[in-house]
Design goal:
The protein contains nine helices and three strands. By secondary structure, it is mainly alpha-helical. Helix 4 runs antiparallel to helix 5 and helix 4 runs parallel beside helix 7.
């Protein structure tokens, strides 16, 4: 998946991260089916929460060519969608993340404020990056013609991303906030994983995978604590097994 890891910064032991669910964890009321496209996107944070919580779920990945037929059957014409047993589907990934986190013991009450602060920082980063993505897909929402030539879209994208990655650009600035936030902790909110990690890691993966033209895959290298955290998270037994399974399926 293109993530860069430094084995010298991966500790031998991950405190409590792969232990059984925390005492506050509950049971899900039925089997879970999570439906999204065959990409990471906004569903990956929910997938990671389910994986870290040790929750079996149906990872339903939709081919883009099948989306037009599926779209009218979804709750709001969007994905992801999560179905739990016979209950009505849920269609907001933030709601899914918090619900899964609560049930799986990854959203402890005493840490909610800190968890939400970390999630908020990541959301600021997402909002900064989003225009450079959507200008290529939906230029009309930014006041450009819907049929704007692809070359012009790419030109605008590159200008936006050049500004984003400058030393005083939004990406380094907000990565700096995350670097300060994690400090000397093992994970975003201490020595145990929470849904804050599910949220932040997906953004770091997106930035470092090479899928955003103009954003170097080494973007987090200038933030040693974040880089070590990124490697540490991916060495968690459940996370490592999950991504190894996906990589094997993609061959």
């Amino acid at each position: 998946f293109g993530s860069r890891q430094d084995p010298d910064q991966v500790p031998d032991v991950h405190p409590r991260a792969d232990d059984p669910p925390q005492p506050g964890a509950m049971a899900f009321p039925g089997p879970i089916k999570l439906t999204y496209f065959g990409i990471e996107g906004v569903a990956e944070r929910v997938r990671l929460a389910l994986v870290l919580g040790g929750v079996d779920f149906e990872d339903d990945r939709v081919d883009f060519k099948d989306w037009p037929a599926l779209k009218p059957t979804t709750k709001y014409g969007t994905l992801p969608q999560m179905k739990i047993g016979d209950a009505e589907p849920c269609a907001q990934s933030g709601a899914m993340l918090r619900y899964v986190g609560q049930v799986a013991g990854l959203y402890p009450t005493e840490q909610i404020l800190k968890i939400e602060e970390a999630i908020g920082i990541e959301e600021d980063l997402g909002r900064a990056v989003m225009p450079s993505m959507y200008i290529g897909m939906r230029p009309h929402i930014y006041g450009y013609p819907e049929d704007m030539p692809q070359e012009q879209r790419q030109e605008i994208q590159m200008k936006l991303r050049t500004k984003l990655v400058e030393d005083d650009g939004d990406i380094p600035r907000i990565l700096g906030y995350l670097e300060k936030f994690i400090g000397d902790s093992q994970f975003m909110c201490g020595d145990a994983v929470t849904i804050a990690d599910c949220q932040v890691i997906v953004r770091l993966r997106h930035l470092s995978k090479g899928v955003l033209d103009g954003v170097p895959t080494t973007i987090i290298d200038g933030f040693p604590k974040l880089k070590a955290y990124f490697a540490r998270f991916h060495e968690l037994e459940k996370v490592k097994a999950y991504y190894e399974k996906l990589a094997a399926m993609a061959k």
